[in-house]
Protein backbone atom coordinates (compact mmCIF):
# COMPACT_ATOMS: atom_id res chain seq x y z
CA UNK A 1 0.00 0.00 0.00
CA UNK A 2 1.30 3.50 -0.71
CA UNK A 3 1.00 6.17 1.96
CA UNK A 4 -0.42 9.44 0.60
CA UNK A 5 1.93 12.45 0.31
CA UNK A 6 2.93 14.10 3.59
CA UNK A 7 5.12 16.99 4.80
CA UNK A 8 8.81 16.63 3.82
CA UNK A 9 10.05 16.30 7.44
CA UNK A 10 7.69 14.05 9.35
CA UNK A 11 7.69 14.33 13.13
CA UNK A 12 9.10 11.41 15.17
CA UNK A 13 5.54 10.31 16.00
CA UNK A 14 4.71 10.34 12.29
CA UNK A 15 7.82 8.32 11.51
CA UNK A 16 6.83 5.72 14.10
CA UNK A 17 3.40 5.48 12.56
CA UNK A 18 4.86 5.17 9.06
CA UNK A 19 7.03 2.30 10.29
CA UNK A 20 4.05 0.58 11.91
CA UNK A 21 1.94 1.08 8.81
CA UNK A 22 4.67 -0.27 6.59
CA UNK A 23 4.94 -3.31 8.86
CA UNK A 24 1.19 -3.73 9.02
CA UNK A 25 0.30 -3.03 5.43
CA UNK A 26 3.60 -3.20 3.56
CA UNK A 27 3.92 -6.41 1.62
CA UNK A 28 1.14 -8.35 3.28
CA UNK A 29 -2.22 -8.32 1.60
CA UNK A 30 -4.66 -9.03 4.43
CA UNK A 31 -7.27 -10.55 2.15
CA UNK A 32 -4.99 -13.10 0.53
CA UNK A 33 -6.58 -16.48 0.88
CA UNK A 34 -3.42 -18.57 1.19
CA UNK A 35 -3.42 -20.18 4.63
CA UNK A 36 -0.46 -19.57 6.92
CA UNK A 37 1.38 -22.47 8.54
CA UNK A 38 -0.58 -23.72 11.56
CA UNK A 39 0.28 -22.16 14.93
CA UNK A 40 3.20 -23.83 16.65
CA UNK A 41 2.19 -26.76 18.84
CA UNK A 42 3.08 -26.40 22.53
CA UNK A 43 6.62 -27.62 23.18
CA UNK A 44 8.54 -28.34 26.36
CA UNK A 45 10.01 -25.04 27.54
CA UNK A 46 12.20 -24.50 30.59
CA UNK A 47 10.11 -22.47 33.12
CA UNK A 48 12.96 -19.96 33.34
CA UNK A 49 12.43 -19.15 29.64
CA UNK A 50 8.64 -19.01 29.75
CA UNK A 51 6.58 -15.88 29.25
CA UNK A 52 2.98 -15.54 30.35
CA UNK A 53 0.60 -12.61 30.54
CA UNK A 54 -2.93 -11.28 30.30
CA UNK A 55 -4.25 -9.66 27.14
CA UNK A 56 -7.69 -7.97 27.34
CA UNK A 57 -9.86 -7.59 24.25
CA UNK A 58 -12.10 -4.51 24.55
CA UNK A 59 -14.32 -2.46 22.26
CA UNK A 60 -17.89 -1.37 21.67
CA UNK A 61 -20.45 -4.05 20.69
CA UNK A 62 -20.17 -5.85 17.38
CA UNK A 63 -16.64 -4.85 16.36
CA UNK A 64 -15.52 -8.51 16.29
CA UNK A 65 -14.05 -9.17 19.75
CA UNK A 66 -15.41 -12.70 20.09
CA UNK A 67 -14.44 -13.62 16.53
CA UNK A 68 -10.93 -12.44 17.40
CA UNK A 69 -10.79 -14.42 20.66
CA UNK A 70 -11.91 -17.63 18.94
CA UNK A 71 -9.29 -17.15 16.23
CA UNK A 72 -6.55 -16.46 18.79
CA UNK A 73 -7.48 -19.48 20.90
CA UNK A 74 -7.97 -21.63 17.79
CA UNK A 75 -11.32 -22.99 19.02
CA UNK A 76 -14.80 -21.57 19.34
CA UNK A 77 -15.07 -20.59 23.00
CA UNK A 78 -16.91 -17.28 22.66
CA UNK A 79 -20.15 -16.99 20.74
CA UNK A 80 -20.60 -14.48 17.93
CA UNK A 81 -23.48 -13.07 15.94
CA UNK A 82 -24.43 -10.07 13.84
CA UNK A 83 -26.58 -8.89 16.74
CA UNK A 84 -24.77 -6.46 19.07
CA UNK A 85 -24.32 -7.47 22.73
CA UNK A 86 -23.90 -11.16 22.11
CA UNK A 87 -21.10 -11.55 24.66
CA UNK A 88 -22.42 -11.13 28.19
CA UNK A 89 -19.66 -12.55 30.37
CA UNK A 90 -15.97 -12.15 30.77
CA UNK A 91 -14.50 -15.11 28.94
CA UNK A 92 -10.93 -16.22 29.31
CA UNK A 93 -9.15 -18.22 26.64
CA UNK A 94 -5.57 -19.50 26.60
CA UNK A 95 -3.08 -20.13 23.84
CA UNK A 96 0.48 -21.31 24.22
CA UNK A 97 2.75 -20.60 21.26
CA UNK A 98 6.41 -21.59 21.63
CA UNK A 99 7.65 -20.13 24.94
CA UNK A 100 4.70 -17.73 25.21
CA UNK A 101 1.42 -18.31 26.99
CA UNK A 102 -1.29 -15.75 26.23
CA UNK A 103 -4.24 -15.48 28.60
CA UNK A 104 -6.91 -13.64 26.61
CA UNK A 105 -9.80 -11.91 28.31
CA UNK A 106 -12.86 -11.24 26.13
CA UNK A 107 -15.28 -8.65 27.45
CA UNK A 108 -18.85 -7.70 26.62
CA UNK A 109 -19.04 -4.64 24.36
CA UNK A 110 -19.30 -1.56 26.58
CA UNK A 111 -22.88 -0.27 26.74
CA UNK A 112 -23.53 3.43 26.77
CA UNK A 113 -27.14 3.63 25.67
CA UNK A 114 -29.30 2.04 28.36
CA UNK A 115 -28.65 2.09 32.09
CA UNK A 116 -30.56 -1.06 33.08
CA UNK A 117 -29.27 -3.64 35.56
CA UNK A 118 -27.99 -5.94 32.83
CA UNK A 119 -25.97 -3.18 31.19
CA UNK A 120 -24.60 -1.91 34.51
CA UNK A 121 -23.43 -5.43 35.25
CA UNK A 122 -21.86 -5.78 31.77
CA UNK A 123 -19.96 -2.50 32.15
CA UNK A 124 -18.60 -3.53 35.55
CA UNK A 125 -17.35 -6.73 33.94
CA UNK A 126 -15.44 -4.75 31.30
CA UNK A 127 -13.78 -2.46 33.85
CA UNK A 128 -12.81 -5.38 36.09
CA UNK A 129 -11.32 -7.24 33.15
CA UNK A 130 -8.91 -4.50 32.06
CA UNK A 131 -7.72 -3.32 35.48
CA UNK A 132 -4.86 -5.75 35.80
CA UNK A 133 -3.63 -6.93 32.41
CA UNK A 134 -0.31 -6.66 30.57
CA UNK A 135 -1.74 -5.51 27.25
CA UNK A 136 -5.06 -4.21 25.94
CA UNK A 137 -6.29 -4.86 22.41
CA UNK A 138 -8.69 -2.00 21.72
CA UNK A 139 -10.83 -3.24 18.84
CA UNK A 140 -12.54 -0.81 16.45
CA UNK A 141 -13.79 -1.18 12.89
CA UNK A 142 -11.07 -0.03 10.47
CA UNK A 143 -11.72 3.50 9.25
CA UNK A 144 -14.42 4.18 11.84
CA UNK A 145 -14.49 5.78 15.26
CA UNK A 146 -17.58 7.19 16.95
CA UNK A 147 -18.73 8.30 20.38
CA UNK A 148 -19.25 4.74 21.59
CA UNK A 149 -15.62 3.88 20.69
CA UNK A 150 -14.42 7.08 22.39
CA UNK A 151 -16.25 6.19 25.61
CA UNK A 152 -14.55 2.80 25.78
CA UNK A 153 -11.15 4.35 25.08
CA UNK A 154 -11.72 6.88 27.87
CA UNK A 155 -12.28 4.11 30.37
CA UNK A 156 -9.02 2.29 29.74
CA UNK A 157 -6.62 2.47 32.68
CA UNK A 158 -3.47 4.55 32.29
CA UNK A 159 -0.09 2.84 32.27
CA UNK A 160 -1.12 -0.31 30.36
CA UNK A 161 0.00 -0.48 26.71
CA UNK A 162 -2.92 -0.34 24.27
CA UNK A 163 -2.82 -1.75 20.72
CA UNK A 164 -5.25 -0.16 18.29
CA UNK A 165 -6.68 -3.15 16.45
CA UNK A 166 -8.46 -1.85 13.33
CA UNK A 167 -10.58 -4.92 12.57
CA UNK A 168 -12.68 -5.81 9.49
CA UNK A 169 -9.90 -4.46 7.30
CA UNK A 170 -11.21 -6.75 4.55
CA UNK A 171 -14.21 -4.40 4.23
CA UNK A 172 -11.98 -1.43 3.33
CA UNK A 173 -11.77 -1.22 -0.44
CA UNK A 174 -9.37 1.68 -0.82
CA UNK A 175 -6.58 0.91 1.60
CA UNK A 176 -4.77 4.21 0.96
CA UNK A 177 -7.63 5.94 2.72
CA UNK A 178 -6.75 4.25 5.97
CA UNK A 179 -3.50 6.18 6.50
CA UNK A 180 -5.19 9.54 7.34
CA UNK A 181 -7.59 7.71 9.63
CA UNK A 182 -4.71 6.02 11.43
CA UNK A 183 -3.03 9.40 11.83
CA UNK A 184 -6.19 10.81 13.40
CA UNK A 185 -6.21 7.84 15.77
CA UNK A 186 -2.63 8.61 16.70
CA UNK A 187 -3.84 11.99 17.96
CA UNK A 188 -6.50 10.41 20.13
CA UNK A 189 -4.24 8.18 22.18
CA UNK A 190 -0.59 7.16 22.42
CA UNK A 191 -1.24 3.64 21.14
CA UNK A 192 1.63 1.20 21.47
CA UNK A 193 0.93 -0.23 17.98
CA UNK A 194 -1.50 0.21 15.10
CA UNK A 195 -2.71 -3.05 13.61
CA UNK A 196 -5.12 -2.99 10.67
CA UNK A 197 -6.28 -6.60 10.23
CA UNK A 198 -9.14 -9.00 9.85
CA UNK A 199 -10.01 -11.38 12.70
CA UNK A 200 -11.17 -13.79 10.00
CA UNK A 201 -7.78 -13.93 8.29
CA UNK A 202 -5.48 -16.61 9.78
CA UNK A 203 -2.34 -14.87 8.55
CA UNK A 204 -3.32 -11.67 10.40
CA UNK A 205 -3.85 -13.71 13.56
CA UNK A 206 -0.31 -15.11 13.26
CA UNK A 207 1.02 -11.59 12.85
CA UNK A 208 -0.90 -10.45 15.91
CA UNK A 209 0.73 -13.14 18.09
CA UNK A 210 4.14 -11.86 17.00
CA UNK A 211 3.11 -8.29 17.87
CA UNK A 212 1.71 -9.20 21.31
CA UNK A 213 4.42 -11.54 22.56
CA UNK A 214 6.88 -8.84 23.54
CA UNK A 215 4.38 -7.45 26.06
CA UNK A 216 4.20 -10.70 28.04
CA UNK A 217 6.25 -10.69 31.24
CA UNK A 218 8.87 -13.36 31.70
CA UNK A 219 7.25 -15.77 34.17
CA UNK A 220 6.19 -19.42 34.24
CA UNK A 221 2.97 -20.41 32.46
CA UNK A 222 -0.20 -20.38 34.56
CA UNK A 223 -2.09 -23.05 32.62
CA UNK A 224 -1.53 -26.41 31.02
CA UNK A 225 -0.59 -25.62 27.38
CA UNK A 226 -3.37 -27.96 26.17
CA UNK A 227 -6.05 -26.08 28.11
CA UNK A 228 -8.16 -23.58 26.12
CA UNK A 229 -10.58 -21.86 28.51
CA UNK A 230 -11.62 -21.43 32.14
CA UNK A 231 -15.28 -21.78 31.23
CA UNK A 232 -17.17 -24.92 32.23
CA UNK A 233 -18.96 -27.27 29.83
CA UNK A 234 -22.23 -26.20 31.42
CA UNK A 235 -21.48 -22.57 30.55
CA UNK A 236 -20.46 -23.47 27.00
CA UNK A 237 -23.77 -25.33 26.55
CA UNK A 238 -25.80 -22.24 27.56
CA UNK A 239 -23.68 -20.01 25.33
CA UNK A 240 -24.06 -22.24 22.30
CA UNK A 241 -27.87 -22.27 22.65
CA UNK A 242 -27.79 -18.48 23.04
CA UNK A 243 -25.74 -18.08 19.87
CA UNK A 244 -28.20 -20.15 17.82
CA UNK A 245 -31.14 -18.33 19.41
CA UNK A 246 -29.73 -14.95 18.31
CA UNK A 247 -28.62 -16.14 14.89
CA UNK A 248 -31.90 -17.83 14.02
CA UNK A 249 -34.34 -15.27 15.38
CA UNK A 250 -32.72 -12.26 13.70
CA UNK A 251 -33.45 -8.75 14.85
CA UNK A 252 -37.02 -9.24 16.14
CA UNK A 253 -35.98 -10.89 19.39
CA UNK A 254 -34.64 -8.41 21.99
CA UNK A 255 -31.09 -9.04 23.20
CA UNK A 256 -32.43 -9.48 26.75
CA UNK A 257 -33.44 -13.09 26.05
CA UNK A 258 -31.18 -15.51 27.88
CA UNK A 259 -30.53 -19.21 28.48
CA UNK A 260 -30.26 -21.13 31.74
CA UNK A 261 -29.13 -24.73 32.15
CA UNK A 262 -31.54 -26.85 34.20
CA UNK A 263 -29.70 -30.14 33.97
CA UNK A 264 -26.20 -31.18 32.91
CA UNK A 265 -25.29 -34.84 33.24
CA UNK A 266 -22.55 -37.01 31.89
CA UNK A 267 -23.24 -40.70 31.21
CA UNK A 268 -20.11 -42.29 29.82
CA UNK A 269 -19.47 -40.68 26.46
CA UNK A 270 -22.93 -39.02 26.38
CA UNK A 271 -23.83 -35.61 27.81
CA UNK A 272 -27.47 -34.86 28.66
CA UNK A 273 -28.36 -31.18 28.79
CA UNK A 274 -31.72 -29.53 29.54
CA UNK A 275 -31.91 -25.76 29.04
CA UNK A 276 -34.55 -23.03 29.30
CA UNK A 277 -34.65 -20.03 26.99
CA UNK A 278 -35.97 -17.10 29.05
CA UNK A 279 -37.77 -14.34 27.16
CA UNK A 280 -39.30 -11.11 28.44
CA UNK A 281 -42.75 -11.17 26.83
CA UNK A 282 -45.37 -13.70 25.85
CA UNK A 283 -45.07 -12.45 22.25
CA UNK A 284 -41.37 -13.31 22.15
CA UNK A 285 -42.13 -16.93 22.98
CA UNK A 286 -43.71 -17.46 19.56
CA UNK A 287 -40.64 -16.03 17.83
CA UNK A 288 -38.44 -18.59 19.54
CA UNK A 289 -40.75 -21.57 19.04
CA UNK A 290 -41.75 -20.75 15.45
CA UNK A 291 -44.44 -22.38 13.38
CA UNK A 292 -45.11 -25.91 14.60
CA UNK A 293 -41.99 -25.64 16.78
CA UNK A 294 -39.69 -25.47 13.75
CA UNK A 295 -37.51 -22.62 15.03
CA UNK A 296 -36.92 -24.14 18.44
CA UNK A 297 -36.10 -27.46 16.82
CA UNK A 298 -33.48 -25.81 14.60
CA UNK A 299 -31.94 -23.91 17.52
CA UNK A 300 -31.65 -27.23 19.37
CA UNK A 301 -30.22 -29.14 16.43
CA UNK A 302 -27.59 -26.54 15.56
CA UNK A 303 -26.52 -26.05 19.19
CA UNK A 304 -26.27 -29.82 19.70
CA UNK A 305 -24.12 -30.23 16.58
CA UNK A 306 -21.70 -27.50 17.73
CA UNK A 307 -21.45 -29.01 21.22
CA UNK A 308 -20.79 -32.48 19.79
CA UNK A 309 -17.96 -30.98 17.74
CA UNK A 310 -16.56 -29.08 20.74
CA UNK A 311 -16.63 -32.04 23.14
CA UNK A 312 -16.16 -34.78 20.60
CA UNK A 313 -19.02 -36.87 22.04
CA UNK A 314 -22.76 -37.46 21.65
CA UNK A 315 -25.07 -34.83 23.15
CA UNK A 316 -28.74 -35.07 24.07
CA UNK A 317 -30.17 -31.56 24.28
CA UNK A 318 -33.65 -30.68 25.52
CA UNK A 319 -34.95 -27.09 25.22
CA UNK A 320 -37.78 -25.21 26.96
CA UNK A 321 -39.05 -21.64 26.63
CA UNK A 322 -40.26 -19.54 29.60
CA UNK A 323 -41.47 -15.94 30.03
CA UNK A 324 -39.99 -13.84 32.88
CA UNK A 325 -40.92 -10.22 32.30
CA UNK A 326 -38.51 -7.49 33.25
CA UNK A 327 -35.57 -9.74 34.24
CA UNK A 328 -32.97 -7.46 32.61
CA UNK A 329 -34.11 -4.55 34.82
CA UNK A 330 -34.00 -6.56 38.02
CA UNK A 331 -30.57 -6.67 39.76
CA UNK A 332 -31.33 -9.81 41.77
CA UNK A 333 -32.55 -11.70 38.74
CA UNK A 334 -29.59 -10.58 36.62
CA UNK A 335 -27.34 -12.09 39.31
CA UNK A 336 -29.43 -15.23 39.61
CA UNK A 337 -29.01 -15.81 35.86
CA UNK A 338 -25.26 -15.87 36.28
CA UNK A 339 -24.16 -12.29 35.55
CA UNK A 340 -21.66 -10.84 38.01
N1 LIG B 1 -15.98 -8.72 7.40
C1 LIG B 1 -15.60 -9.02 8.64
N2 LIG B 1 -16.52 -9.30 9.59
C2 LIG B 1 -16.09 -9.60 10.84
C3 LIG B 1 -14.71 -9.60 11.18
N3 LIG B 1 -14.61 -9.90 12.50
C4 LIG B 1 -15.88 -10.09 12.95
N4 LIG B 1 -16.77 -9.91 11.96
C5 LIG B 1 -18.26 -10.00 12.05
O1 LIG B 1 -18.75 -8.98 12.90
C6 LIG B 1 -19.91 -9.44 13.62
C7 LIG B 1 -19.70 -9.22 15.12
O2 LIG B 1 -18.66 -10.07 15.56
P1 LIG B 1 -18.53 -10.52 17.11
O3 LIG B 1 -17.23 -11.26 17.20
O4 LIG B 1 -19.77 -11.18 17.60
O5 LIG B 1 -18.42 -9.07 17.79
P2 LIG B 1 -18.28 -8.66 19.32
O6 LIG B 1 -17.45 -7.44 19.35
O7 LIG B 1 -17.80 -9.83 20.13
O8 LIG B 1 -19.78 -8.32 19.68
P3 LIG B 1 -20.52 -8.19 21.13
O9 LIG B 1 -20.68 -9.60 21.63
O10 LIG B 1 -21.81 -7.55 20.77
O11 LIG B 1 -19.68 -7.33 22.01
C8 LIG B 1 -20.09 -10.90 13.24
O12 LIG B 1 -21.07 -10.96 12.21
C9 LIG B 1 -18.72 -11.30 12.70
O13 LIG B 1 -18.79 -12.35 11.74
C10 LIG B 1 -13.75 -9.29 10.16
O14 LIG B 1 -12.54 -9.25 10.35
N5 LIG B 1 -14.26 -9.01 8.91
How are the elements arranged and paired?
Elements (H helix, E strand, L loop, with lengths): L11 H14 L25 E8 L6 H9 L17 E7 L2 E7 L10 H14 L4 E7 L5 H9 L6 E6 L10 H11 L4 E4 L5 H11 L20 H17 L8 E10 L2 E10 L2 H8 L4 H18 L2 E10 L7 H6 L4
Parallel strand pairs: 1-3, 1-4, 4-5, 5-6, 8-9
Antiparallel strand pairs: 2-3, 7-8
Helix pairs in contact: 1-5, 7-9
The structure holds guanosine-5'-triphosphate.
The site of guanosine-5'-triphosphate has 24 residues, from helix 2.
Describe it:
This protein is an alpha/beta fold. It has 2 domains: 12-215, Rossmann fold (3-Layer(aba) Sandwich); 233-336, GMP Synthetase, Chain A, domain 3, CATH 3.30.300. The chain is 34% helix and 20% strand. It contains 10 helices and 9 strands. It has helices at 12-25, 65-73, 117-130, 147-155, 178-188, 202-212, 233-249, 282-289, 294-311, 331-336; strands spanning 51-58, 91-97, 100-106, 135-141, 162-167, 193-196, 258-267, 270-279, 314-323. The strands form 2 sheets. Strands 2-3-1-4-5-6 form a 6-stranded mixed β-sheet, with helices on both faces. A 3-stranded mixed β-sheet has the order 7-8-9. The protein is globular, with a radius of gyration of 21 Å. The chain starts with 11 loop residues before the first helix and ends with a helix. Residues 197-199 are annotated as: G5. Residues 241-325 form the KH type-2 domain. Pfam families: KH_2 (PF07650), MMR_HSR1 (PF01926). GTP binds at residues 59-66, 106-110, 167-170. Belongs to the TRAFAC class TrmE-Era-EngA-EngB-Septin-like GTPase superfamily. Era GTPase family.
